[in-house]
Amino acid sequence: MSLLAGLPLRLFAFGVLVASAAALQFDFADVQQCDQVTVSFSGSNLAPGLVPASLQILPINSTAFNISLVEPSLVYSGVALTPLPFPAGTDFLTSLDDGTGDSIISVSDVIRVLPSPIGNSSCLPNATQVTRRFSLPFNVSQCEEFSIQYDTTLVSQPPNVRLYHPTGSSFPLNMVSSTVGEATYIMGFSREKDVLLLVTDENGNMETSPLFTVGGDANSDSSCLHKNNGEKTDDRTADMHHHHNGTPGPSNSRALIIGVASGGSAVVLIAIGVVIFVVRERRKRRRNQRYNFDSSKIQMPPSNDSLNEKHTSEKSPSITSPKAVSNPIYTSDAFVSPTRSTYQRGSLASTAQIVPGDRTRQTVPTSMPPSQIIVEPPAERGSLDSLDIEGMLNMATYSLRTLPAGKIRKPRSTI
């Protein structure tokens, strides 16, 4: 049962792994001030045709920079970077881009630089005032137009604006209009999402906006969300963008189907395991109920006092002889010890007389009730009755009288 109950959990975990391993993701270790940084990745390999070319480092509300990847295969084993010139407490994002500048995997989560355990600050630049080229907004609503102002002495053309969503997509925003020193764009991203804007001029100078949440409510315009927001956005980026805008792309649809199928199978197997468990418990409960008994109904054996009272009540109060038998199973005179011989004898003992001393063997009067009849046990075979002695004497006397006188031997004198 335990194996059956654990099976759905294993299948559910397998389904989660299938869904999560569908894309390569950032797996950052702790980043410390002025310490070497290793950018690691987790998940499956990149899709065919996607070649990483650069790694974007995007500090929030600061100056961004790009690190070229000379050997793209290092992505699978991790990319070692020189110490980042960020003081402790700086938050930043990273993005893995291809040769056209489009993200090929999801943007990293917000990463914060930790203080150096040894107080190392050798990588930090001198505290100089950095001139900002662009004036970036931080309060924009869904499908709402917003403007970016730029310094015409430093920037001659409207900049390119790219949106980054932590742990999500990255895509360029469409420019609606522009004038000298100002360009208008449309926020083609869902409300209540955190985003960061990267602005790049024609010379490659990059600045980031603060991390802000896209505004809006249920009545906000959503007509811009389903449109493609960039001329050079590839299928991978478009899929990510549509996914975060509420419209899943083909790859996300496959992952969603796999996840739903795995989750549904897990739910079914869990339900089957629960049903089997309940049925077994009910059978066990019924089987135990068959052997239940009430211990109060068990009759205790009678005590010695009750047995003595019972035996005393069964005795006849008029009988005191240890050889007497109460309530005999017979009452006929034929079973009483006879005063006369009832068998044939070859001597004068056949005419037996009643000896007065033997009157005690007479039968009990029949007028006595059956419960009062007393029967004495017969005499032992080894004893001689008075009738037998009398018969033997009579036989000896008769034999002497019938013998001739000459044949009678006299006893020899012993004197």
Please explain how this structure is put together:
Residues 217-251, 290-325 are annotated as: Disordered. Keywords: Membrane, Signal, Transmembrane, Transmembrane helix. Residues 291-306, 315-325 have a biased composition (Polar residues). Residues 1-23 form the signal peptide. This protein has 5 helices and 17 strands. The chain has 415 residues and is α+β, with helices and mostly antiparallel strands. It has helices at 2-20, 235-244, 250-290, 304-314, 386-402; strands at residues 25-26, 37-39, 41-42, 54-59, 65-68, 79-81, 91-97, 111-112, 134-135, 145-150, 160-164, 170-172, 175-179, 182-186, 194-200, 206-208, 212-213. The radius of gyration is 62 Å and the shape is rod-shaped. The longest helix has 41 residues, at 250-290. It is 24% helix and 16% strand. Mean pLDDT is 74; it is low at 1-22, 228-251 and 347-364.
Give a short summary of the structure.
The protein has 415 residues and is α+β, with helices and mostly antiparallel strands.
